[in-house]
From TrEMBL:
Annotated transmembrane regions: 447-468
Keyword Transmembrane: yes
Protein name as catalogued: Membrane protein
Species of provenance: Acidovorax temperans
Residue ranges occupied by any DUF4178 domain in the UniProt entry: 77-205, 281-417
Entries under InterPro entries matching the protein: DUF4178 (IPR025235)
Region (Disordered) location: 481-504
Keyword Membrane: yes
Comp. bias (Gly residues): 492-504
Length: 504
């Protein structure tokens, strides 16, 4: 456990039940009694009870209080201990932030970020921040001379807490929150629940890199009785992941909204014309060196602006206890493995290119997307008919996708993978033909074309010119001038190809 010998832990009896309440960090002002759930505030050596904290909802995270690990900050490795947990809710979903107590006596946060984890520390923004409403989604702004893109602007509220905590916003009271992301992978969060607003900056981390000790063995739900009857057909429905906000009934395929919890009012949307996933839910497989389990599936349709030709693709939600969530995308262009990015790529002024982590990506497709069918469980509130605006980019290093909803911009990055790799990973050799796609070859290198390629292109151009010349002078009374082999333009729908877009 990380402790600083210069710090003295403070312990006092809970004003509610008398049980000991301990403060390890001098910066902590609040704590939640582990026995009676009283919220207490520390003023000097006096504890005052403010009320009772709402009960925690269990989540999929393997983290728990008093886990210890190590993080490299400013080139130096520091031990830390998780001493508190905060749970927030917004229109974008529900997430957890852990309070980390560092060896130097300061605190930081280890939070969830679109199914992954990010380690953040408080910073001084260097200027007075404008009201949250002044941050326009997708616009750029500068903090301490660095450019950021506005990825989210909305409201959030604290729903529960545990352990030792910093100054808290009022429980259940909405406050404004803005998220900024940079092209080099940083995320900056502005919390307007404090005065002045609290600003934290961080980067994505892998739990195994933090050398954590004390993790839970399993991420599945602990409460065995978390089940209910489907509001549509009455069949029993079992919840597997405790973070689930939407899931489908296994009997009638109705999509059930769990945003209010199992004890709240359940709403079901009947789904007809089911689309069966090629990879069954619950399947386990290893991709890119990580063991994944398929927990969700959704089918989506896209259409380019001004066009009436639709195209479809499927997305499999994958879960790993330490890596969080990822998406396996099945489109006409092939299979790809993508994850939401922590930072936000920098778009060019004309929107034709995007630069992320030093790599430039070229725009391939732009389209409107809609979710048409859902199966399984999801860590965000998914619903049939959800619509987003999407743009897909590509480079020699992989794929990059942008997805924009009403109040959030989400970027995803990943790589194309071969059909055989997918079949082998999930032991679906009997479905190799069904899973087969026209796997794309490697992208053309940026260094240019070789002499052989140039000669080949020149020959093809000459042949095409000869054919076009013949067709332009063709007399159908003498020659066969059929146009049955005419070229089909990809049109506004880009031939129906999509890498699946971004993900919340």
């Amino acid at each position: 456990m990380a402790t600083d010998p210069t710090q003295r832990a403070y312990r006092a009896p809970c004003p509610g039940c008398g049980a000991p309440v301990e403060f390890k960090s001098a910066q902590s002002t609040h704590a939640v009694c582990g026995y009676c759930q009283s919220t207490v505030v520390r003023s000097g050596d006096v504890l005052t009870r403010l009320g009772k904290m709402a009960e925690l909802f269990d989540d999929h995270s393997p983290l728990q209080l008093f886990d210890s690990g190590r993080i490299t900050l400013d080139g130096k490795e520091q031990p830390f201990t998780l001493i508190g947990r905060l749970q927030f809710k917004s229109d974008a979903g529900v997430w957890t932030e852990w309070v980390a107590f560092l060896e130097d006596g300061s605190t930081a946060s280890l939070g969830e970020d679109n199914g992954a984890y990010v380690f953040t520390r408080k910073i001084d923004p260097g200027r007075e921040l404008p009201e949250a409403s002044r941050f326009r989604l997708g616009a750029t702004t500068a903090i301490n001379g660095k450019s950021y893109s506005v990825a989210y602007s909305g409201s959030a509220q604290l729903v529960s807490a545990q352990g030792e905590l910093p100054q808290l916003p009022p429980l259940g009271h909405p406050f404004d929150m803005v998220e900024l992301r940079s092209a080099d992978g940083e995320v900056l969060s502005i919390d307007y629940g404090h005065t002045p607003p609290s600003v934290e900056r961080g980067r994505s981390v892998l739990l195994e890199d933090l050398k954590l000790q004390g993790l839970k063995d399993e991420s599945a739900k602990e409460e065995k009785g978390r089940q209910f009857n489907c509001p549509h057909c009455g069949a029993p429905v079992q919840v597997q992941l405790s973070t689930t906000k939407s899931l489908t009934c296994g009997s009638c395929n109705s999509l059930i909204d769990l945003n209010s919890g199992v004890g709240g009012e359940l709403r079901a949307a009947v789904q007809d014309e089911p689309v069966q996933p090629l990879i069954p839910l619950g399947s386990k497989g290893q991709l890119q060196g990580v063991h994944w389990q398929v927990v969700g599936f959704q089918h989506r349709m896209g259409v380019a602006p001004g066009d009436d030709e639709h195209f479809g693709w499927s997305e499999y939600l994958l879960y790993n206890q330490k890596r969080g969530f990822a998406f396996l995308v099945d489109s006409e262009e092939g299979w790809s493995m993508v994850r939401p990015t922590t930072g936000a790529p920098q778009l060019s002024s004309n929107g034709r290119t995007a630069t992320y982590m030093g790599t430039k990506y070229e725009l391939k497709y732009s389209y409107e997307a809609e979710t048409t069918y859902v199966l399984g469980e999801f860590y965000w509130q998914v619903s049939r008919g959800q619509k987003t605006s999407n743009r897909d980019f590509a480079s020699s290093k992989g794929v990059l996708s942008l997805e924009q909803s009403r109040n959030e911009v989400t970027w995803s990055a990943g790589d194309k993978i071969a059909s055989d790799t997918v079949a082998k990973a999930f032991k679906l050799d009997d479905k190799k033909d069904v899973l087969q796609r026209d796997d794309p070859g490697p992208f053309v290198a940026k260094s240019g074309m070789g002499c052989g390629t140039i000669i080949l292109v020149a020959v093809v151009i000459i042949i095409l010119l000869i054919i076009l010349s013949r067709c332009s002078s063709c007399d159908p009374r003498v020659e066969n001038c059929s146009s049955s082999s005419s070229y089909r333009s990809s049109g506004g729908s880009y031939g129906g190809y999509s890498s699946g877009g971004g993900h919340k």
